[in-house]
């Protein structure tokens, strides 16, 4: 098999841990597989470099930042290659340029345009294990080094796996997979064996520290089988993230996600006239504010209430944007003490009674649901933040996710 392995910052955080990663790679190699290993910078390294730059300038050039930040990953790739070499394994480290990752010119947040795999193919054919410096590419236009945005080495790994048609892309972090919910909230949470791309994207909050969302989207697009597993317990099989068709018996509900990073914006008595919603949400979009849930009540006397949620970081921008609508609205309030709990599962497409079960669970705990929204594979509820953990535990319980 051709395996792409990706080791995150914590997995290569010390020299000892780099040695541990070398051991994992050796074992996989001894089993007869071809390997492309993509590495992050040692943990904390990227932040340290940003701090260094900020001591000289509060607004350093993005082009220089890419030159600076891409160095972190290069250090790890070279060290890992040296460690493996020392033990008699044939290896070569490669920068983004050598790997053939061509990107747009948006420094510090470049998008991958294409990957020329010929260099990698040749090197594998010569018997090398390739150790790739993640998170970086080269601008098609200028040939300057670019980086792919924070957490971008996941993206490097998935894109390479897709381009070279690897059999699997294993993402190693310090957790051993994706759980049915956050084990710190519900100790009975279980590691899932398999989950679909769409479920993983909806459960982003559970995977946030494990997998960069952009990389899951790319895995879906390129049909890359992803595995989330731990470099600290490599003997434990992780969670496979794959296409829905590959999951034989999907549970009705796969997991419960919690997002505390929500603010509910209530617009009371909005004039009920054509175009008002369009102009409100256009204004928000123009200010780059991401709106999550939206509900409008039935109009009474030519006025309707409009509620939507935004993420915590966007509060000030939203308040400013809403000034425009002072005269169209009787009152605007911002409730920060809310959270969103979501029940996710592809199986709910073909089952009835999934939503009522959730609402009953909330009723039994005396939790008031403020906003509900549903999609084919998700039911989300906005509730008071003080009930967040209780809600997660009771939902985990009613859908028997601990079984
Ligand atoms: N080192 C980069 C970061 O910290 C990329 C990565 O680790 O994926 O964002
Ligand atoms: Mg990362």
Q: End-to-end span in angstroms? A: 34 Å
Q: What percent of residues are in strands?
A: 25-35%
Any low-confidence stretches, pLDDT <50, length ≥5?
none
By CATH, the architecture of the largest domain is named: 3-Layer(aba) Sandwich
Total individual domains: 2
Compute the CA-based radius of gyration: 24 Å
Structure notes:
This protein has 403 residues and is α/β, with parallel strands linked by helices. It has 2 domains: 2-174, Acetylglutamate kinase-like (Carbamate kinase, 3-Layer(aba) Sandwich); 256-398, VC0802-like (2-Layer Sandwich). Helices cover 34% and strands 28% of the residues. It contains 13 helices and 18 strands. The strands form 3 sheets. The chain has an 8-stranded mixed β-sheet, sandwiched between helices. A hairpin with an 8-residue loop joins strand 4 and strand 5 (112-115). It is globular, with a radius of gyration of 24 Å. The two termini are 34 Å apart. It binds aspartic acid and magnesium ion. Magnesium ion binds next to loops.
Fold blueprint:
Elements: E1 2-7, H1 15-30, E2 34-39, H2 45-56, H3 62-86, E3 91-94, H4 96-99, E4 101-103, E5 112-115, H5 118-125, E6 129-133, E7 136-139, E8 145-147, H6 152-163, E9 168-173, E10 194-196, H7 197-202, H8 204-207, H9 213-222, E11 226-230, E12 239-242, E13 255-271, H10 276-286, E14 291-296, E15 303-311, H11 315-322, E16 331-344, H12 354-364, E17 371-375, E18 378-384, H13 388-398
Parallel strand pairs: 1-2, 1-9, 2-6, 3-6, 4-7, 9-11, 10-12
Antiparallel strand pairs: 4-5, 7-8, 11-12, 13-15, 13-16, 14-15, 16-18, 17-18
Helix pairs in contact: 1-3, 2-3, 6-9, 12-13
Bound molecules: aspartic acid (ASP) and magnesium ion (MG).
Magnesium ion binds at residues 8-9, 40, 151, 154.
